[in-house]
Write a structure and sequence with these properties.
The protein has 224 residues and is α/β, with parallel strands linked by helices. It has helices at 11-21, 55-59, 67-70, 80-88, 101-111, 168-176, 191-199, 213-220, and strands spanning 2-5, 25-28, 32-36, 49-52, 75-77, 94-96, 119-124, 138-148, 162-165, 185-188, 204-207. The longest helix is centred in the N-terminal third of the chain and has 11 residues, at 11-21. The protein is elongated. The two termini are 17 Å apart.
Length: 224
């Protein structure tokens, strides 16, 4: 199949490589551009731990002047990809929730039960809501933002069999660029991402069983 990947850089390259290895042709059309905020105010320490719902939360730390203060803290990541990014950035105590934000909140409530200090949530500017952990204080710090693309690349206007969508906001940007085409299948990471496509009348909208890349890729290339 000829597939369009709307995921932002640099994660879209990994997705494209997996699809090409499975025999698909891939067109990259990132619908969001991630912008880091190196001067984000983290607030005063101490913190009991760090929470991230995207690998971009870790990437944004690379240029932050207080990066070294955080590396010794335990970090909980929403999924395996973001956990791997955290380890590569120098965090030693990293645990993946292997799920979505609700799974991350449940894991944090267990791991940090009775913690005396706030948890630091490294967040994006545009998100569905703040992360709440029962019984604990979470300090949300916006450390990156995503700017929407205003057009699709020319190659995306040619024949496309399917489109991979990783977030609701990237779907909204895709629709704003006139992306809906008859007969194209849409593969979505979550029901939240799929919502605007269904509302727009997309012909075929499939949702991954779990909100992770492996489950999304399984929709496109199911195992025999």
């Amino acid at each position: 199949m000829r597939l369009l990947v709307t995921r932002p850089e640099p994660d879209n390259a990994r997705t494209a490589a997996a699809l090409r290895a499975a025999g698909h042709e891939v067109v990259l059309a990132p619908m969001l551009r991630i912008e880091m905020l190196p001067d984000a105010d983290l607030g005063p320490p101490p913190w009991s731990g760090i929470l991230i719902t995207s690998a971009n939360g870790v990437r944004a730390l690379a240029g932050h002047r207080r990066r070294d203060e955080l590396l010794s803290l335990p970090l909980l990541a929403v999924g395996r990809s973001s956990a791997e990014e955290a380890r590569a950035a120098g965090f030693a105590d990293v645990t993946s929730a292997d799920g979505d934000a609700r799974d991350l909140a449940r894991l944090a409530a267990q791991r940090f039960a009775g913690a005396p200090h706030p948890l630091l949530y490294l967040a994006g500017e545009d998100r569905s809501g703040d992360l709440a952990v029962p019984g604990l204080t979470v300090r949300t710090v916006v450390i990156y933002r995503a700017a929407a693309a205003d057009r699709l690349p020319p190659a995306a206007r040619e024949r496309i069999d399917g489109v991979l969508h990783f977030s609701r906001r990237s779907v909204e940007a895709y629709l704003a660029c006139g992306g809906i085409v008859a007969g194209v299948a849409h593969y979505c990471l979550s029901e939240r991402a799929a919502g605007p496509l269904k509302a727009a009348g997309a012909d075929s909208v499939l949702v991954a069983q779990r909100p992770d890349e492996a489950s999304l890729l399984a929709l496109v290339t199911p195992k025999p």
